[in-house]
Amino acid sequence: TNKLQQAEKLLHEFRQSSATPLALLHQVANDLVHEMNAGLAVEGGSDQLKMLPTYVQNLPSGKEKGLFYAVDLGGTNFRVLRVLLGGKSGQILSQEFKEVAIPRELMVGTGKDLFDFIAGTLAAFVDTEDESLKLHFGKVRESGFAFSFPVRQTSVKSGIVIHWTKGFKVEDAVGKDIVKQLQDALGRSGHQIVISALVNDTVGTLAGGRYNFEEETMVGCIIGTGTNACYVERADAVQKWEDPLPKSGEMVINMEWGNFRSHLLPRTFADEEVDRESVNPGCQWFEKMISGMYLGEIVRHVLVRLAEEASLFGASVPVKLYERRTLGTPAVSKMHADTSTDLQVVAKVLRQVYGVETTTLEERKIVHKVCDILGERGGRLAAAGLYGILKKIGRTGTAMNGATDRKKTVIAMDGGLFEHHGTYRAYMEETLQELMGSGAAYEVALRLQNDGSGIGAALLAASHSQFS
Ligand code: ADP
Ligand code: MG
């Protein structure tokens, strides 16, 4: 029918404007490397990538021992956890956590309210500590603080909030030491808990990778509500670093790559809409194209256009389709994963979310293709970013004649989107291998470092412990 042809035509155009051929991805990776170099050269050298030195000098070795806590403020969900580290055995003997949603009004309220909520949650969690664990902390309880927003660190346990992302906007907390704000709130809670490490969630993930995996973990990357990556850089490559070089000769750099903005990124009308409606228009373009907070919204905008211009869901557009944030990324990944011949899952999601009672198989196929185009684009762009990092640290390239001992680089991954969106993840893994090429001198593996940010923060509190 005519309507269907119109929909196919729109879909075809959309697919073209979202395309990520390999050659383009190589250029995107080169652009990223260019910005990385600019950001390392001088403070503010890149207006996209902050390339923040993290002051993390001791990545966990496996010998850490004792009871440590962590607070993980990442986005939608907030976690507190405790881990008992076994020492020489290099093992986590026990771990417990509690997850709470941050009430929406606290995400855009005052620093005091937000940190009192966080401190109160940690304090209540400490109160549930088993008697048998009390032997295992040093003089006082220590906690790591995984904080997944841009921070200019001033030491391993202090740092200034630069700005908020992912829907948070706590204006009066900006420009102040985030650890002091939490430490003060902990004081008000009446509990003695010391924050020993301020850890970006990507750095926590990297630390967890170092603790857990045999091969060398060089990169930590999160794709959840938002996205970011950190990596181990040669300290002398960080030209803007003015303090004495760390003994290890290495420095973990928090890239804040969500704000990467190559003009080569295949942006569409839907990306423009999402950007315009966000709390930070013009910022975080890379994040807005690949992460969970936005993927569902992008799909929704495309469906709106298909409904308006090709009557995809009947003569009138379902009213709810115009409502923001009605289509979550989990719903998109569910539809994308639908392998039934009649796309029952797609039908069910459309019915449950938008009240669309009847759809034809052809219509459902179009919805499925939209999910696929955007999942593919996101996964492939994320892979290009990681490839750029590997290129920067010299872990790509062609093997010399006859060389057989290909060294393996591990990329520790975390985040709900990477963990749960199987098709996205498959695109990402496949594309990374494609970019490396078959004759590469290095192998690379993406490994899920589950709850990387939280456990990593506890591990880094241990490796930077002040009391034990
Ligand atoms: P955060 O990034 O807030 O620290 P997570 O790493 O747990 O938290 O990521 C949560 C995000 O992951 C959600 O906002 C959502 O976008 C995405 N997500 C969660 N479950 C799924 C799923 N099943 N499929 C796709 N995306 C998911
Ligand atoms: Mg997180």
TrEMBL record:
Gene3D superfamilies: 3.30.420.40, 3.40.367.20. GO terms for cellular component: cytosol; mitochondrion. CDD domains: ASKHA_NBD_HK_plant (cd24020). Pathway: Carbohydrate metabolism; hexose metabolism; Carbohydrate degradation; glycolysis; D-glyceraldehyde 3-phosphate and glycerone phosphate from D-glucose: step 1/4. Residues 11-211 form the Hexokinase N-terminal domain. GO terms for molecular function: ATP binding; D-glucose binding; fructokinase activity; glucokinase activity. Its EC number is 2.7.1.-. This is Phosphotransferase. It comes from Ceratodon purpureus (Fire moss).
